[in-house]
Design goal:
The complex is a heterodimer of chains A (401) and B (297). Chain A is mostly beta strands and 401 residues long. Chain A contains one helix and 20 strands. Chain B is α+β, with helices and mostly antiparallel strands and 297 residues long. Chain B is built from seven helices and 14 strands. Chain B is globular. The C terminus of chain B is likely disordered. The chains are: A mainly beta (401), B alpha+beta (297). The interface between A and B is large, with 61 and 79 residues.
């Protein structure tokens, strides 16, 4: 037996990712290729979604009541929020997609109105009347165009409550490197908000105010190995206008706020365990003196083909705003007793179960959030109204064929 | 589709991979359901049942594009590739020890002829009862490309689809490293003939050495020539690389249907990378990285 090798006409050592060229190719081959390219499988350029997906989600958010020792009014209920969400993502031809999101929130309960000095020198909360109730409806519509090396999207958003309306627009561009190992993202966003506080159980002294925000986001994701991907992001937001909370009795904030956020996300897939680790870190800084760190760890464990279980743990720590104090001092230029601007730390533990059957995905999750000054890394005076809450969510998604 | 679908991916997050593989599997199953001649409910079965009834069956755009492709293949090969030639399987039984009698072959041949089929680009009518079409030699290769396109659309840029030896990829395995594809000696899956680097496009191998009849010192392969009704006598196995697995498959199948010399000439003329094994074990080709030694037959 003999071995004959024809002269190497075309080197195919695989080192090139270029399509195989056949410049002087046979007319029959050209005819076949051009006929093949009319088939739908070859008609797509990039990765517009090929099927529509639809999802509904319902969440119950319930804050723990405020304890008697932290409140002048004794035990009090706090906020409950019911949240319903609808999501639809559909391809429009092969290069466009459209996404539509609606969210409806119903809020009820009481929130801290102001903090007063108690006899022992500490602060105690005075809650708003126990019957605040409001509905918020927000909607967003995103149109996205996919091209060979990436995609570009425009998002329009609107959020509406009795006393508040927000309109936003966003533009983002994602671009893949030639070797497909790296992705760059640039985003621009703007929103204009109108406040028209309603006088309910708490008096307000504001008739109509406005605020606006402008933001810029830069991101990069890099495939670091066959099983790992890392993402970095930087964003800057400038807020301008009436940034004071009209429902707080002792609140006056600067009318400008600049925020910087740095994020990193790491995903690592473990073949043996059939699981993925999601490890995220976020740093926040602003010119009100607030700084915060967030670390989020989640373990996405596959259980057979149809189930996955996702335990998660999040740690948050924040330094207080410069003008925060337990009991606000109205003699200062700016002042606030809002616990959200105080120093504290928080732990969130969560568990999510997801199951897939044919085109359906069902998920159920629960979260417990607890915050306390002692959990945090920053010094400060403890706000009496620090939060704890539970959140339960069920979701159902459907993928159309 | 004559074997399990195998998907491989590198460098992508697990949730992405899972969803993409599910979608690609669904795509393969969709094409199988639609085009299998074995499934009672398939479109192909419906078309074949209507043969001779005078009824014209309207088809969707994807099927129309597949039929147009088959039509191009028919005309470019001067009738050597014919999607109506499947009826020859009614005469040829490759489990048997001898070729069928000549009159049986002639009877089947009378029902072959794509040029007699009424095809207007939108609906198809098979003019005589007993005529059949099948997309063997087209649809598995197309499914390979279609599944790869699904993986690509789902964000997998380093993934591979393997449908029983027909292969398509969305890109190299990793950056500058192509997928390494082993091509076996005809008839011996344990004996590597060559390792081929695949960084883009697809690869197809035609020629199944297992399915043939040996009679009076003559080998009758299962690759049947629609013009004679007899097995092709040329090359034994042909592997071709192309931008699409579909084109690779058609190119290699045509090479097998020709005489060995014409087949080699055709392969050389296409300008595509290829590898061919002749009946006497001689290996030809333009694909680098052959294993040393000759094909063992």
């Amino acid at each position: 037996m003999r071995l004959q090798l024809s002269k190497l006409r075309h080197r195919n050592d695989g080192s090139s990712t270029e399509p195989i060229k056949c410049r002087d190719s046979h007319p029959s081959l050209l005819a076949l290729t051009s006929s093949a390219l009319l088939l739908p499988a070859y008609a797509y350029a990039d990765s517009a979604p090929d099927t529509a997906t639809m999802g509904v989600r319902y969440s119950e958010y319930k804050e723990d009541g405020i304890k008697a020792q932290d409140s002048f009014g004794g035990d009090s209920e706090r906020y409950d929020i019911d949240i319903s969400q609808f999501h639809l993502l559909a391809p429009l031809g092969s290069e466009w997609s459209v996404a539509f999101d609606v969210q409806q929130e119903t809020m009820s309960g009481a929130s801290p109105w102001f903090v007063g000095q108690s006899f022992d020198g500490g602060g105690k909360v005075i809650m708003s009347g126990a019957s605040i109730s409001d509905n918020r409806t927000s909607m967003s519509l995103t149109t996205r165009y996919y091209f060979d090396r990436g995609n570009v999207g425009v998002t329009l958003g609107n959020s509406d409550e009795d006393d508040y309306e927000s309109n936003s627009v966003g533009l983002d561009l994602t671009f893949n490197s030639a070797d497909q190992q790296r992705t760059y993202t640039v985003g621009l966003g703007a929103s204009n908000d109108d406040l028209e506080p309603t006088i309910g159980t708490t008096p307000v002294d504001v008739a109509k105010e406005e605020k606006e925000s402008r933001s810029l986001f830069l991101g990069m994701s890099q495939i670091v190995s066959r099983r790992a991907i890392i993402q970095f992001g930087l964003s800057y937001t400038l807020m301008d206008g009436y940034l004071t909370d009209p429902y707080k009795a002792s609140d006056r904030r600067p009318d400008e706020r600049q925020q910087w956020v740095a994020t990193s996300q790491y995903r690592h897939f473990f073949v043996g365990a059939d699981a993925a680790l999601h490890a995220d870190y976020r740093y926040f800084d602003d010119d009100w003196g607030v700084r915060s760190h967030t670390v989020n760890l989640a373990w996405h464990q596959s259980l057979g083909r149809n189930f996955s279980l996702i335990p998660s743990l999040r740690y948050y720590t924040q330094d207080a705003a410069d003008f925060y104090s337990v009991v606000a001092d109205p003699s200062q230029q700016y002042f606030a007793d809002d616990h959200r601007l105080s120093s504290f730390g928080a732990w969130t533990t969560g568990l999510k179960l997801q199951t897939r059957l044919d085109n359906w995905t069902f998920s159920i999750s629960g979260e417990r959030y607890r915050s306390d000054l002692s959990y945090g890394l920053y010094e400060g005076d403890e706000a009496p109204a620090l939060l704890s809450f539970n959140r339960y969510t069920i979701g159902l998604d459907y993928r159309f064929d | 589709m004559g074997g399990p679908a195998e998907f491989r991916a590198s460098t992508a997050p697990v949730d992405l991979i899972e969803h993409a593989f599910d979608a690609a599997q669904a795509e393969v199953e969709r094409l199988e359901t639609r085009y299998s001649r074995y499934l009672d409910t398939s479109l192909v079965t419906r078309i074949n049942r209507s043969a001779g009834s005078g009824q014209s069956i309207p088809v969707d755009t994807e099927t129309a594009a597949l039929i147009n492709y088959a039509d191009t293949l028919f005309s470019q090969s001067n009738g050597l590739f014919d999607i109506t030639s499947g009826v020859l399987r009614q005469a040829w039984d490759f489990q048997a020890s001898a070729p069928p009698p000549a009159d049986k072959i002639a009877e089947c041949r009378a029902r072959i002829g794509w040029d007699q089929v009424q095809w207007d680009g939108e609906s198809i009518a098979l003019p005589r009862a007993g005529m059949e079409i099948d997309f063997g030699g087209i649809v598995k290769e197309y499914a390979c490309d279609a599944a790869a396109a699904v993986l690509k659309r789902n964000g997998l840029d380093h993934a591979l689809v393997d449908l029983a030896g027909d292969i398509a990829c969305t890109g190299p395995e990793h950056k500058a490293h192509p997928w390494r594809i082993g091509v076996c000696q005809p008839g011996d899956p344990d004996q590597p003939l060559a390792t081929i680097g695949l960084a883009a496009g697809g690869l197809a191998t035609s020629g199944d050495y297992q399915r043939c009849i040996e009679w009076q010192g003559q080998r009758y392969s299962h690759i049947l020539n629609p013009l004679t009704g007899w097995p092709a006598q040329g090359l034994v196995s042909v592997t071709v690389l192309a931008d699409q697995c579909l084109v690779a498959g058609s190119t290699s199948t045509l090479a097998l249907l020709m005489s060995a010399d014409s087949g080699l000439q055709w392969l050389a003329d296409t300008g595509l990378p290829w590898l061919a094994v002749e009946g006497d074990g001689i290996v030809h080709g333009t694909i680098a990285e052959h294993h040393t030694g000759s094909a063992k037959l």
